[in-house]
Amino acid sequence: MLIVMKADATERETMEVVRIVTELGLRAHPLPGAQRTAIGITGNQGAVDASRFENMPGVAEAIRVSKPYKLISLDLRPEKTVVRVGGDAAIGGDELAIIAGPCAIESRAQAFAIAEAVRRSGARFFRGGAYKPRTSPYAFQGLGEEGLKILAEVREVYGLKIVTEAMDEAGIDLVERYGDMIQLGARNMQNFSLLRRAGRSHLPVLLKRGLAATLDEWLLAAEYIMSEGNYNVVLCERGIRTFSQHTRNTLDLAAIPAVRRISHLPVIIDPSHGTGKNYMVTPLARAGVAVGADGLIVEIHDQPEQALCDGAQALTFQQYEQMVAEVRAIHDVITPAMVK
Amino acid sequence: MLIVMKADATERETMEVVRIVTELGLRAHPLPGAQRTAIGITGNQGAVDASRFENMPGVAEAIRVSKPYKLISLDLRPEKTVVRVGGDAAIGGDELAIIAGPCAIESRAQAFAIAEAVRRSGARFFRGGAYKPRTSPYAFQGLGEEGLKILAEVREVYGLKIVTEAMDEAGIDLVERYGDMIQLGARNMQNFSLLRRAGRSHLPVLLKRGLAATLDEWLLAAEYIMSEGNYNVVLCERGIRTFSQHTRNTLDLAAIPAVRRISHLPVIIDPSHGTGKNYMVTPLARAGVAVGADGLIVEIHDQPEQALCDGAQALTFQQYEQMVAEVRAIHDVITPAMVK
Amino acid sequence: MLIVMKADATERETMEVVRIVTELGLRAHPLPGAQRTAIGITGNQGAVDASRFENMPGVAEAIRVSKPYKLISLDLRPEKTVVRVGGDAAIGGDELAIIAGPCAIESRAQAFAIAEAVRRSGARFFRGGAYKPRTSPYAFQGLGEEGLKILAEVREVYGLKIVTEAMDEAGIDLVERYGDMIQLGARNMQNFSLLRRAGRSHLPVLLKRGLAATLDEWLLAAEYIMSEGNYNVVLCERGIRTFSQHTRNTLDLAAIPAVRRISHLPVIIDPSHGTGKNYMVTPLARAGVAVGADGLIVEIHDQPEQALCDGAQALTFQQYEQMVAEVRAIHDVITPAMVK
Amino acid sequence: MLIVMKADATERETMEVVRIVTELGLRAHPLPGAQRTAIGITGNQGAVDASRFENMPGVAEAIRVSKPYKLISLDLRPEKTVVRVGGDAAIGGDELAIIAGPCAIESRAQAFAIAEAVRRSGARFFRGGAYKPRTSPYAFQGLGEEGLKILAEVREVYGLKIVTEAMDEAGIDLVERYGDMIQLGARNMQNFSLLRRAGRSHLPVLLKRGLAATLDEWLLAAEYIMSEGNYNVVLCERGIRTFSQHTRNTLDLAAIPAVRRISHLPVIIDPSHGTGKNYMVTPLARAGVAVGADGLIVEIHDQPEQALCDGAQALTFQQYEQMVAEVRAIHDVITPAMVK
After folding, report:
1. Quick check: B192 and A134 CB within 8 A?
2. Which residues contact residue D43 at a Cβ distance below 8 angstroms, ignoring those fewer than 6 apart?
């Protein structure tokens, strides 16, 4: 059930609907929009009685939701959500969001050298893993909390917003302490306990698409987060697993317009994991911006050949600067009408 | 590094090697085999000095491991591991292991009715989810601890071993309290924090292959568990995600001989999730036994059309009995030489 | 439209229906079955008027077909088709059909040595490519007509039925001259001109599933052949292309029961191309028989390591004999009820 | 073997090398480039003796080729090939090539209405199928030669170059009579007899990537064509088959930079088949141009909802005009350096 408030409904009227929903033992998710507020209802087993709400003051209509998702849907919020990160930065607005940094934080010196380049490029977000999900238990697993502390310093010194991965519930506690945005990785896209925990965080969440996730599964993973009350979710297409082996993954750019058609959530692309090859990152970054993504997350390194993880896909600083120039040139000719 | 003890090495000599490994700040994993004991070493950053061990009493040889896995490997243990479950049952031995039960525990009555059928068939293991990983946050998520208590009763009454899924670390605590074997689902195959926690459990682990997992990724997920000291891992092929849509997943039976060639771990199949269609479960169960699997895990239900989850793939009792008869007939003509 | 004749309809009555269909400018496909004859009608643009036929003598009913296929369907013929090959051999009957031989005919000596082993095993069919579809234009492309002549000699000397691939229409002319069954390869499964030509042949056709073919596409490829009047089609599952790289292709054994549920055509498996690895061929052959396939096509070679193509998947004679023993043991315990 | 001529080698010196190659029973493929001519040699079983050529006048070096392809390779021709079509149009040059038209030619009126819109947009190429590869034998198969005659009229009246599919060797004969460029479809990408026939045509060839084709298989299909002497091949990425079902196919844009890195052949994209959905065509067209494609082939229709095939993906004229404007805007900011 979805309750759409009238354009001129008062906050009090909205709160009254919320109160009734809660009284029924259900959960109300009021999402204010540009034109009107809508209230998603979750927690019901069967259908909710629409007539209970339709005649309440300020209510425009009560809509039964037939799709598997409610809160991520354009039905709930017809305009795109702008997700605020770290106070004064945003993803989903007019500006192209660029999140850049190393695969893993390796040392303070490495992080600072890279952050310097990120700031110089005008990007607002710094990425870097302190906890790395590695296929082998014997591979470098990240610096842990020490890495998070370095990230917090990067924020302090360079004013960049910190986007970093949490692999478990304890990890979210730590990212909440040191970072600005929780990244949930492709392998954890259906780690439902983790999604629920992220849904109870005050931080925005960057939710990567799973390697074999359908569009619905991905959107429902976002729905898990939102159903707990955290509406600040950014989706990230990072490549799917296919038979094709000339890239590490197959970047599915059609996912961007597909998401747009269903959801108000911003969506960005990861051309680094999406290709796994240095020379492909920039062309695919251009393509991602051209297709209408709200931003991109990209791996860079001061010494790619010595990176402790994923060096093969990291851009050098020079390549990165060139990429930023190219994607901005593309972004400048993309009009809002194109990517609606 | 892998240290192979002589056939006549004493326990004391083995323990001495373990002591030295530990002294070096590394971890020793002694795995006794039919002919000899081998000791896997993990925790090293670079190469371990072989000469340090080669002249110790009882040591046959020290082998550098070039593959990404150590403990799951036939190099460490040339004969198949028999995983004991709940004391007197086993997977990986001569007997075909049959794990049967509902997708989800729905009620005491449902569980008991099904357990009755499972016992009648001669199967030793009962499956049933108390915590269900569901694509949608609004779908039935299982009875939780109440479901586990029902499972514990089933064990008490029917003497069946309980195999049930844990979706997070708290869930493992609970399965340890009520069950006999921890099931880790396909979506959590690369939930590395969960794998590590399972690696510290005293219970054996049933590790399902991820929907998009390569053979190496799956084996390395098992390696994660074993590297923490729990060597009782059973692998389960449950279908991969492909373009082919006439089944829910594509059951990759070639994975069975592929695992056999590399690993000593037992491997079973799940023809229920592997096909998602009732009428295909039995033929694929037959195929799985014919290809050499150590057992199978199958969903049955007293009233499939009313099941709260996955009813479309659940066998009726009659179909299940027929399936058991058929797979046993196949198993009887399979000789050890065929599946070595 | 599908016209089902009464069980006691006379041949004359059937022919009268065929005459009327033809008069309407359409094509009639009478398929006699155990209980009754049914007549498929193709060539119509829109719906055919059922009333035109329903009152004709001998007609039981006229059924509108809503599925995309007509002639391959169990609706047309409820019992499995037995495809006769070379007069006295068959695929789809009680006996397990074994088609064995080299990937490519390399020489008379090689073909004869292998044919000797095939005959010794009791198999009735000999495979061997004279025209090879090779990924590279610079790879060995087969001996051409010379190879077909060798195959004809093999038939003469060993009494084996010759199954061999045609890659184009001229190739079918040649196979018709020298062979007993036309093999259409996976890469040509949607070469519709070739399918139509095969549909006008008097020889039975072995139609391999394409690497990326859905069940419907595969069945409709068979429908192409049948719509031209050749009803002797055997389907062959030979593995699909997936992300999984531990095998050359992923053998989709669920395709066997899936075909059974829709079509009366026999279906066999190719464990050689389906795995691409020698050590997997026999286990998957066992699985294929257990799942209910009507037979298998397998590559063997007297000197696999010197084979001009696909040596890695060819069985030695000894392995082949062992495989035949194993699949027959499985086949013996499979009852008709299991694979219905 | 690949023989690189000196920059100042004379035509006579090149011809002398060709003569010697031919004398050896091999085939010489001289490809003139901006800086120098190189001569590919095919037809050899083993290695060719380099010393035979290295001291000939005008020869810079003789290079052994270790990769599976020779003629498509940047080793043979370091700069991109510009493929001339119909005399005065080209694909692979500075101008973005736009090929537009209906899926199938349905009537003269339809073709002319659409051609009008194509010419108005400034595009140089008209597409339209006279022979349609359809999954079902009962679906509309195209107008055949009548359709080709309509296409020839379109060329006459509108000055557009005709790109149209041939499904078999007889079809190529006809396209040679009526069209300007032979399109080989995804399903025929490994129809090797057809590739060879196209290789003997005087018309340029548009070679679509197969649904399950790896990069190497695709490039080797082009190599088949070129090895017969036709060097005018344009590659076309049109989407691959994956598990992902929110699009008809998954457009693999990383294939563009992947091709660039290996081959001198131009490469375009097909956002219509690549997505199968009207609303995705334009965003993916933009992405394809941004990633560096040399052009695109797109389906448009005057009445998409009444199209005899693929109406769901056809753009209306208005959408098409908008798309052309958008891709040109992107193309204008793409510099040669970006897509090298």
Report:
1. yes
2. D25, D26, D27
User: Given this model, what pLDDT does residue A65 score?
Assistant: 85
**Which of the other chains make 3 or more beta carbon contacts under 8 angstroms with chain A?**
B, C, D
CATH number of D2-63: 3.30.70.1140
The reply to whether D292 touches chain C by the CB within 8 Å rule is: no
Q: Which residues have CB under 8 Å from A68's CB, separation 6+?
A: A216, A220, A223, B135, B136, B138
Inspect the interface and report whether the beta carbons of C137 and D220 lie closer than 8 Å. Answer: yes
Q: Which pLDDT does position C340 carry in this prediction?
A: 65
Q: Which of A212, A254, A261 is closest, CB to CB, to D243?
A: A212
pLDDT at A99 over 70: yes
Chain C residues within 8 A of D169 when measuring between CB atoms: 168-169
Q: Which of D133, D169, D212 sits opposite C241 (nearest CB)?
A: D212
**Angle at the Cα of D36 (from D32 to D40), degrees rounded to 5?**
55
Q: pLDDT under 50 in chain D at which residues? A: none
Distance CA(D151)–CA(D169), nearest Å, equals: 19
Shortest CA gap B169–chain A (Å):
9
User: Which residues are within 8 A (CB) of B86 and not within 5 positions of it... i.e. 6 or more apart?
Assistant: B155, B161, B162, B180, B181
Q: What is the pLDDT of residue A14?
A: 95
Structure tokens at A310: 């994923």
Q: Is A242 on the interface with C (CB under 8 A)?
A: yes
CB contact under 8 A, A137 and B241: no
Q: Is A132 on the interface with D (CB under 8 A)?
A: no
Q: ipTM, 2 decimals? A: 0.95
Burial of B33 (0-12, 13-18, 19+ CB in 10 A): middle
Residue with tokens 């927690």: A43
Characterize the bridge pairing of strands B2-5 and B37-42: antiparallel
CATH superfamily of D83-339: Aldolase class I (3.20.20.70)
β-bridge mates for residue B61, sequence order: B4
- CA–CA separation, A19 vs A16, rounded Å? 5
**Torsion sign, CA atoms A178, A183, A185, A191:** positive
What residues does each domain of chain A span? Answer: 2-63, 83-339
CA distance A305 to chain B (A): 19
